[in-house]
Amino acid sequence: MATRRWERWLTWVVAVSGPLIATALLIHLSHQVQRDYVFIYLGLVAVVGVVRGLAPALLCAAISFLCVDWYFVQPVYTLTIADEQDIVNLIAFLAVAGVVGLLASRRRDALLQAQALTRQLQEANTQLIRVNKEQAEEATAALRLARSEQQIRTLRESDRLRRELLANVSHELRTPLGTILAESTAANDSRSASDMGMSLQTIAAEARRLKSLVDDMLDMTVIESGALELDLVPLGLDDAISAAAERLHRSSPDREVGWDREAALVEVLADWRRLGQIFDNLLSNADRFAPPGTPVEVRVAREEPGLVTIRVTDQGPGIPPELRDRIFERFFRADAPDKPGGTGLGLSIVRGLVEAHAGTVAVDSVDEPGATFRFTVPEAPATS
């Protein structure tokens, strides 16, 4: 503040003393130089106007006018003017000096406005940088929080799946192991041959159930770890359906599998063992829920370019809409009347195997009774 006040007073001093100093210098110069005094005074007025504004410039112009009239206009050392031309020249000088001062002051005002605008822009830019920094920090904090929440959810889900896995595995293992243990320890020489045979059959059935559970768990682990390897080769879809229907017939002799061999005469690009596993799980699931004496239907169609669509349909109770999103979850099982419960992994394995073949699997929405599982596999490229 003190510096600005000192600069303001210095400008007024220059406005007053500047014309006096210029006059003192011009008096001692040649007459030719004295005739150019007007440019020196006008320059001084312009400088004062640019530095401080219109008022000091007008004061400088007035003092310059008096100095010129006193020292350089005949008769000198008086404020009288003998020649009319000198009157015109002095008036012109005063007018020009005023205009120069006005223009210089406007130039100064424009410069001050530009400086003020520059400061405002700098302040706005500084504020914008600060706001951007705060927003970046907030976004980083929000992202960090979201990641933490995601990690917490993942850990909770992993813990839930772990507890669910332990509960289901322990439950699934307990029954066949208990049965095998009971039948094996009860076997002795006092039992008849027929009783011993039934015990051995029971032990064999429960052993196969244990093997199925272990195989399903190993398959699920391989699928979820991304370590599943497929031997993709062109193969006939009709052969895969025929083999799967024959395997189902061995375990359920009374269950008929209906399918159109001519519609299934198409080659797909798939792994033979894994495609058979998809059919086995879907047919086994349909067999569990279909009423006795009703067939399981397998239909083949080409609905999308490069893909073959297969549907497996039963005439069971169907799947409620609220369960269709959960039907492919691990260990999710629906109750089937008069049928032993499965491992709850079959449909999860189906989804993993189908997606590994670059296909999709879903439950079709149907109005009639029963459930329809639809999945796709890539069609084998045509060979020339």
Provide a brief overview of the structure:
It is built from nine helices and seven strands, in the order ααααααβαββαββαββ. The protein is of the alpha+beta class. Helix 4 packs antiparallel against helix 5 and helix 7 crosses helix 8.
Describe the 3D structure.
- The structure is a single chain.
- This protein folds into 2 domains: 2-127, no CATH class; 233-378, Heat Shock Protein 90 (2-Layer Sandwich), CATH 3.30.565.
- Helix 1 runs antiparallel to helix 3 (37-51), helix 3 (37-51) runs antiparallel to helix 4 (54-72) and helix 6 crosses helix 9.
- By secondary structure, it is an alpha+beta fold.
- Strand 4 (296-304) and strand 5 form a beta hairpin.
- It starts with a helix and ends in a 6-residue tail after the last strand.
- It is rod-shaped and about 160 Å long.
- It has helices at residues 2-27, 31-34, 37-51, 54-72, 84-186, 193-224, 237-251, 272-289, 346-356; strands spanning 233-236, 257-259, 267-270, 296-304, 307-313, 361-364, 372-378.
